[in-house]
Structure formats: structure tokens, C-alpha cells
Design brief:
The complex is a heterodimer of chains A (448) and B (305). In chain A, helix 3 links the parallel strand 1 and strand 2. Chain A is built from 17 helices and 5 strands. Classes of the chains: A mainly alpha (448), B alpha/beta (305). At the A-B interface, helix 11 of A face helix 2 and helix 11 of B.
């Protein structure tokens, strides 16, 4: 009875605090919706992200056109044809524009006919682990569809010719090959249809799942596919051994992602000191001092920005020391980008503090927004393999621009001018958010 | 401000929060070097008046001049010349007493030697010189209150508003705050002092204004208030008789015959004057809270938003 009395009292107290109720019930629902939606979008079969692959055709033969057509029809690939006057396939991967590129060298058609080694080169970004698995899974049916029969028949014909088989024997061998090829094609089609029956996932989804379980096996799969298809493979970024490069890329993603997310949390807290000052009465003291609301808010911004910048510097140095994240590849670019990211996060934190009336409100709303922004903006997983709409939404968050910038520096070694867009957008976010916060704060403190 | 001009001049001041008038037609004046006590029950309009005079709140109507300036239109200039001791402690707990004083001294434009001098004076005045480098969060309530006052004085203001500066402190700290106020008066600083501690106002103030429900119900020196028509005049009569028999006879007759009567007046104290003028009904304003009505610190700030 006494326990019930105590519980009833606590229930009354709890339900009279509307913010606590909203946080207790609304926050989990909101987070489940956001993250459930996000995970479904990334892992779901229907909306699986298409991976962009740059293809440079220097051959322009019937065979290369057929290969392009099959690649273009692949579910998991988005073909980016490299024009003659454009940046080459290799350069596109090196710049981080695409995770993978295929160069079809001149003489490809002739080599196919002659049974010679094919002038096909696959340029890879080893940091894009998941994207590479998706590409590998899609290359098999595309290559088999475009060149498989031709490849097989002509290769075996060449072997029989080399062995000086009698003409009749060659015709019989050709018939056997035709029947076998037909069966093989049926098998491939059967496998491709499998997900519609709900039995098996497509090759790309299998690859995604496998990647999460065993990185080394996933790597073997991607490389083995390339080898099987007779592709020359070159890792154009990262340097060093393939597996180590992959690990470094993932660590760089993790360090940058967490840095941005924790920066947002930290700076919302710093912005919240404005509300603390209001609650403790020191804000009135500041109002009574010379300067006015704008100097109070700009002082808060400067404090918040300095804390944010220090936070980033310390995290990156830690990332360098522990995970060997290449933070010193473009020091100037890193400093300027960090300053811009800290400024944008400062604007965000201050704007939130001005919009909220109490620290409790600030904590509740900022948790929802920061976690949502982090999920959408690529702080938790790379945006590269998310669907287009997800990437589009993601770039409404400062996280996405910050992640693009940091990955550009850490992984692709981009300089200041190459990440100018990211810096510009982040600076714009900072100016916009601080400007709006200033206006609201002045309105709030106006003597009336 | 002209030499002859009042430090504070208020005519017909009105401040409404929605339909309710927290201050309703108040007239007020304060001369240079004078200490004005502002008394009133919770919700009387004291803190609202102080917030208007100290530029934190705009009046709904009326004429207000403080040090010759309009607190709304010329707030920035006025703020440089006034000091406000808020009802609530407004200190940075994580900073030391010295750091708190130095911060506000610098904020008011004092640097170098001027800052050092202002901070030292504040520490001496508040009796915190020996604890200057300790964090405020380790201080007792009395020490915090003293620092709360010292910060308001660090830029040597011409006019100081003290809004219940001695709430909840020990007698020693209260005495020190009285000394701080006395030092200000010696310096010629004009003061507006609000308090529920009637003894403090009686002791410190030259003139007292009693507010109730946003209106002024009485104003004057203590002796003037004692003569206020609404203050009940009571007295004790001492009758001396030449003999016990006469006394008994007088007692029996309840008459003064054969007696030498002297009447000693029982002069009312401020507490009785206050109760006589404002009544004994409780003023638990539902919007108020512990600070006393919507004009109290937190609620008034909320209103100001």
C-alpha cells in the first residue's frame, strides 16, 4: 500500500512535467522512426543504394558498347561515362568523385576476339569497402551478360584451333558449349530472380552482409571477382597494402564522424550556458553592463567556437596517435575546415540555446536533432552507398558537409581549394545560424 | 543631470503584465545622496519598479527619468552610472571572488591599475580579501551576499539599487552589508533599498515609500509615517494619585478627578505602520513564487521576455 502511495505520487509529479513526459515517450518514438527509417533505407533490398562507377571507353567497339549496355542495366550500378575531354577514370577515383572506375582500353574488342589478355583496368578506392562489394557483385552478371558467351566460345574455339582439332570435332565442341552456356545463363537468371521469391538476397546484398561479418573474406570476394573477369586492379588512393588501407579509411570515417557528432553535443552544451546564466541571474548582470545583447551573444559564440575548435584538434591528434588517421596531409586545409565546422556547430548550438526557454528543453530537443543529423549526415555510416534521397537530405545537415571535407583531406589528400565548397557551405551555415540567433536574442532581451 | 535635478523622478508610472497592473500610477522622487526605502508586501510592485528604473523593463505608461536620462531610450548611458544588487545571487560559482569582481570591473571598462584598485576595494569592502582566490561555490550564504553587493559597486556607480540584499544571511554578514551601505552614503551615492526587513529600512533609509498593489500608500520619513492618519495612534496613560484611597476612588469612578495625568505616546514602529497601512491579509500571489509576485526577479524576467 505504501509502495503504491509513493508510486502514485511519483506518477503525478512525472506527468505534470510535460517536458519529461515528452522526452520519456516522444524521444524514443522519434529516434526509432528516424533510425529505423535510415537503417531500412540503407539495408533494404528495394532501396539499396546504387554505386556510381565511372567508365572510360577508349575502344568504342561493338564489344565495349555491349559491355557498357550491360553495366548500365545492372541494378546496383550507376554508370558515369567519361567523355573524351573529361577527367579520366583513374583521376575520378583519386579525387573521391567515384569509388570505382573501369577503363576499357583501346583494342579491347580485338583482344576479346583473339583471346588475348583484355585491356580492362579497375581503379578502386580501397576505403569504399561496401561500395566495392556492391560493384563486384554487379560486375559478374554484367560481364557474363555482355561477354560471357563470346568469351567462352571464342576462347575454347581458340584452344581447339591451337590443338589442331578436326573441323567436325570443333563443330561438336561448339554445340556442347552452346548447351552448357544456355544452362549457365539460366542459372544466372535464376539467381538474379531469387530475391523476388524471398529466398535469397542478391549478390550485392550478400556482399554487404558479408562485409559486416568478415572484412578479409569480403576483400577476397571483390578481388577474386576482378581476377575472374580478367581485370587489372589498381588501388589509386590510400597507399600501402589493401587491407591496411581499408582499415585506415574506416578509422578515418569513424574519427571524423564521432568528432562531428560529439562536437555538436559539446557545443549545444556550451550554448546552453546562456540559459544557465539566465536561470542564475547573471544574464541580467551582463545586460546591465555596457555592450548590449549582441556583445553578450557574440562572446558566447567566441567561447563556444574556441571550445569546439580545441575539441576537434584534440580528437584528430588522438586519431592520429591511436589509429594513424592521416590528419597532417593538408594541415592548412584541416585547420580552416575545422574552424568552419566549429563555427557552424557553434551557430547551431547558440541558435538552439536561443530558441529554447530552459536547459531541460535544450537537452531534449538537441538530443533528437543531433542524433538525427548525425544519422542523416554520415557521422555513423558513409553516405556514399545511401539512396539518393537520403544523401540529398543528409546534405541539409552540417555533418554531411563536415564529413565530406574531412574525408577529402584525410583520405584523398585534398587541399584548401578542393574543399572550398564544403568550407563555404559550413561558413554559410555558421553565419546564417549566428545571425538568426543574434536577431532572436536581441528581440528576447529588448527592453519592453 | 542638472545639480538641482532629482536623481530619480517618476510621474504616473504604470507597468502592466497583461491585464494586471503591477505598478499603477506611481510617483517617486530621490534626491542626490538620499537613501530611499521601498517597502511593500509581496506583489506590491517593488521589484518591477526597480527593474524599470534600472533599464531592464520598460514602463507601460508614465514619465521616468533616472540621473536625468530616459531608462529606455538612453539605457546604455544610464547603465554605466547605476549599480544593481539583484534579489537573487548572481555570481559565477566556478570563479573566485577576485575573478568575479575582476570580470565585472573589466566589463565596465576598467583595465590595469583602475581594475586592480576597484577589485581590491570590492574585496576589502565585502570582507573577502582573505578568501579572494577561493571559488565562490565554497562560500557561505553570507559571503555570497556580500560579494553580490560588491560586484554591483565595482564600477563606482552614482546610484545603487539594492533589492533585498540581506535575504537569508547571518547577523554578521548583515552588519557588513550595512557598513557597505553606510560607506556608499558617505561617498554621496544615492540609494534605493527594498527589503522585507523593516528594521533595516528603518535604520538605513532617510525616506520610506510604502507600496501596495502597485500603488503608493504612504511616503515620508519615519516620524512622518508615524503621524499618518491611517496609522492607529495608541497611547499609555499613567495616573498618579496622592493617596491610595484617591486612586481607588478614581479607579472606581474611572474618572481623572484629583489626579495628575500624563500621557506617554506609544510611537509606532515601522512594522506596525506597515501593517496598518497595508493590512494583514496574506498576499500569496498565485503567479509569484518564493521571490514574491510576478514582479519578483525570475518572474519579472520571464515577463520581460
Amino acid at each position: 500500500m505504501r509502495a503504491w502511495l509513493l508510486a502514485r505520487k511519483d506518477l503525478r509529479v512525472y506527468f505534470r512535467d510535460r517536458v519529461a513526459v515528452a522526452l520519456g515517450f516522444g524521444l524514443p518514438i522519434a529516434l526509432c522512426t528516424v533510425f529505423g527509417g535510415a537503417m531500412g533505407a540503407i539495408g533494404g533490398d528495394d532501396t539499396l543504394g546504387r554505386v556510381e562507377i565511372a567508365v572510360q571507353d577508349d575502344d568504342h567497339s561493338e564489344a565495349s558498347r555491349k559491355l557498357l549496355s550491360e553495366l548500365g542495366a545492372a541494378d546496383g550500378l550507376e554508370l558515369d561515362l567519361v567523355g573524351p575531354d573529361e577527367k579520366g577514370a583513374r583521376e575520378r577515383v583519386a579525387a573521391g568523385d567515384v569509388p570505382v572506375a573501369l577503363a576499357i582500353g583501346a583494342g579491347f574488342g580485338a583482344a576479346l576476339t583473339a583471346g588475348d589478355p583484355l585491356p580492362l583496368t579497375l581503379y578502386r578506392d580501397p576505403g569504399k569497402v561496401i561500395e566495392l562489394q556492391i560493384v563486384a557483385g554487379n560486375l559478374i552478371p554484367a560481364f557474363l551478360g555482355a561477354l560471357g558467351e563470346d568469351l567462352g566460345q571464342r576462347s575454347i574455339g581458340k584452344v581447339l584451333e591451337t590443338l589442331d582439332f578436326p573441323l567436325l570435332g570443333r563443330e561438336r565442341a561448339q554445340a556442347i558449349l552452346d548447351r552448357s552456356w544456355s544452362s549457365l545463363s539460366d542459372l544466372v537468371q535464376e539467381l538474379e530472380r531469387a530475391p523476388a521469391d524471398g529466398d535469397e538476397a542478391p549478390a550485392a546484398a550478400v556482399a554487404v552482409a558479408a562485409e559486416g561479418e568478415k572484412e578479409d573474406e569480403a576483400f577476397d570476394f571483390a578481388s577474386a571477382v576482378a581476377e575472374m573477369l580478367g581485370l587489372t586492379v589498381e588501388d589509386v588512393v590510400g597507399g600501402g597494402e589493401h587491407g591496411a588501407a581499408q582499415r585506415r579509411a574506416q578509422q578515418a570515417q569513424a574519427v571524423a564522424g564521432m568528432a562531428v557528432m560529439m562536437l555538436l553535443f559539446g557545443l549545444v552544451h556550451c550554448g546552453g550556458t546562456l540559459l544557465a546564466e539566465e536561470a542564475e541571474g547573471t544574464l541580467d548582470r551582463l545586460r546591465l553592463a555596457p555592450g548590449g545583447p549582441s556583445s553578450i551573444l557574440l562572446g558566447k559564440c567566441l567561447f563556444t567556437w574556441l571550445v569546439g575548435l580545441s575539441q576537434l584538434v584534440i580528437l584528430f591528434l588522438y586519431g592520429r596517435a591511436i589509429f594513424d588517421v592521416p590528419v597532417f596531409r593538408s594541415p592548412v586545409a584541416l585547420v580552416v575546415l575545422s574552424a568552419a565546422v566549429a563555427a557552424a556547430a557553434t551557430g547551431f548550438g547558440i541558435l538552439f540555446a536561443v530558441l529554447c526557454r530552459t536547459q531541460k528543453q535544450l537537452e531534449g530537443f538537441s538530443t533528437i536533432v543531433v542524433l538525427t543529423m548525425s544519422a542523416l549526415g554520415g557521422s555513423w555510416w558513409p553516405l556514399a552507398f545511401a539512396p539518393d534521397w537520403y544523401r540529398f537530405l543528409g546534405h541539409f545537415t552540417l555533418n554531411a558537409w563536415a564529413m565530406d571535407g574531412f574525408q577529402g583531406i584525410f583520405w584523398y589528400g585534398k587541399g584548401l581549394t578542393e574543399i572550398g565548397l564544403e568550407i563555404g557551405v559550413l561558413a554559410g551555415i555558421a553565419v546564417g545560424a549566428i545571425g538568426l540567433a543574434l536577431r532572436l536574442f536581441e528581440r528576447r532581451l529588448r527592453v519592453r | 543631470m542638472e545639480a538641482s535635478e532629482n536623481v530619480i523622478s517618476v510621474r504616473g508610472l504604470v507597468r502592466r503584465f497583461g491585464a494586471r497592473a503591477a505598478v499603477d500610477g506611481l510617483d517617486l522622487e530621490l534626491s542626490a545622496g538620499e537613501c530611499l526605502g521601498l517597502l511593500g508586501p509581496n506583489g506590491a510592485g517593488k521589484s518591477t519598479t526597480v527593474r524599470i528604473l534600472s533599464t531592464l523593463l520598460a514602463p507601460s505608461a508614465g514619465h521616468v527619468r533616472v540621473l536625468g536620462l530616459d531608462p529606455v531610450a538612453e539605457g546604455a548611458r544610464l547603465r554605466e552610472r547605476i549599480g544593481v544588487v539583484p534579489q537573487e545571487l548572481a555570481l559565477y560559482d566556478e570563479l573566485s571572488a577576485h575573478e568575479n569582481l575582476a570580470f565585472f570591473a573589466e566589463l565596465s571598462g576598467r583595465t590595469g591599475a583602475a581594475r586592480t584598485e576597484a577589485v581590491s576595494a570590492g574585496l576589502e569592502l565585502s570582507g573577502l580579501a582573505e578568501r579572494r582566490d577561493e571559488r565562490v561555490k565554497t562560500f557561505s550564504g553570507g559571503m555570497k551576499r556580500r560579494l553580490n553587493v560588491a560586484i554591483a559597486l565595482v564600477h563606482a556607480p552614482e546610484l545603487v539599487f539594492l533589492d533585498e540584499p540581506t535575504v537569508g544571511i547571518d547577523p554578521q554578514s548583515r552588519e557588513r552589508i550595512f557598513e557597505m551601505v553606510a560607506a556608499l552614503r558617505q561617498r554621496g551615492t544615492a540609494l534605493v533599498y527594498t527589503s522585507h526587513q523593516l528594521g533595516e529600512v528603518e535604520r538605513l533609509c532617510d525616506r520610506i515609500v510604502i507600496l501596495d498593489r502597485g500603488r503608493k500608500v504612504a511616503e515620508g520619513t519615519l516620524s512622518e509615517l508615524q503621524q499618518h492618519p491611517r496609522v492607529q495612534q495608541r497611547g499609555t496613560a499613567t495616573l498618579r494619585f496622592e493617596s491610595a484611597a484617591a486612586a481607588r476612588a478614581a479607579q472606581a469612578a474611572l474618572g481623572p478627578r484629583g489626579a495628575t495625568a500624563t500621557l506617554e505616546e506609544d510611537r509606532p514602529g515601522l512594522e506596525r505602520i506597515f501593517l496598518d497601512l497595508t493590512g494583514r491579509a496574506l498576499r500569496d500571489d498565485p503567479e509569484g513564487g518564493p521571490e514574491g509576485g510576478p514582479e519578483g526577479g525570475a518572474a519579472a524576467r520571464e515577463e520581460a521576455r
